[in-house]
Amino acid sequence: MLRFPEPFRIAGSYGAPGAFKLDFESRELWIIASNEFDWDHVSVSLKTRIPNWREMSLVKEVFWDDQDWVIQYHPPKKDYINLHPFCLHLWRPQFESIPLPPTIMV
Questions:
Q1: For residue 105, with 0-12 CB atoms within 10 Å meaning exposed, 13-18 middle and 19 or more buried, which class applies?
Q2: Is pLDDT above 90 for 30?
Q3: Residue 40 clears pLDDT 90, i.e. is over it
Q4: 10 Å Cβ neighbour count for 55?
Q5: Which band of pLDDT confidence, cut at 50, 70 and 90, is reported for residue 84?
Q6: How many whole angstroms separate alpha carbon 19 and alpha carbon 5?
Q7: Inter-residue contact 36 to 17 (CB < 8 Å)
Q8: Backbone φ, ψ for residue 78 (5° rounding)
Q9: CATH top-level class for 6-105?
Q10: So where are the chain's domains?
């Protein structure tokens, strides 16, 4: 289940979707989190580059429980919607299980 970490909130109402900022190793991660349409969704951006694995992992740890699986989709190019050049997204369906690969492949 998606969490809304109040100490990092910069916009929105307590306990609800909104905007957040995480400081990580002298960088600012700008985050929008929502739980609408039966999906948990977090977008993560930096001002000058795409977030890296460590930054995305931190966001996952802050917004979800350790046992939760979340995914990053790579849609067909025709379905791209790019509103920010340095933004990545994490997703988790709220009422369905994500198909998981064999553990040995993870």
A1: exposed
A2: yes
A3: yes
A4: 19
A5: confident
A6: 10
A7: yes
A8: -65, -20
A9: alpha beta
A10: 6-105
d(CA 22, CA 62): 9
Angstrom CA distances, 7 to 48, 83, 88, 92, stand at 24, 26, 22, 23
pTM exceeds cut of 0.85? yes
Joined together, the tokens standing for residue 92 give: 């988790």
Task: Scan for tokens 């460590």, then name that residue.
Answer: 54
> 27-34 and 18-24 as β-strands: parallel, antiparallel, unpaired?
antiparallel
- Please give the order of strands across the beta sheet that includes 39-45: 9-12, 18-24, 27-34, 39-45, 87-93
pLDDT of residue 81: 84
H or E stretch including 30? Answer: strand 27-34
Q: What φ, ψ does residue 40 adopt, rounded to 5°? A: -90, 135
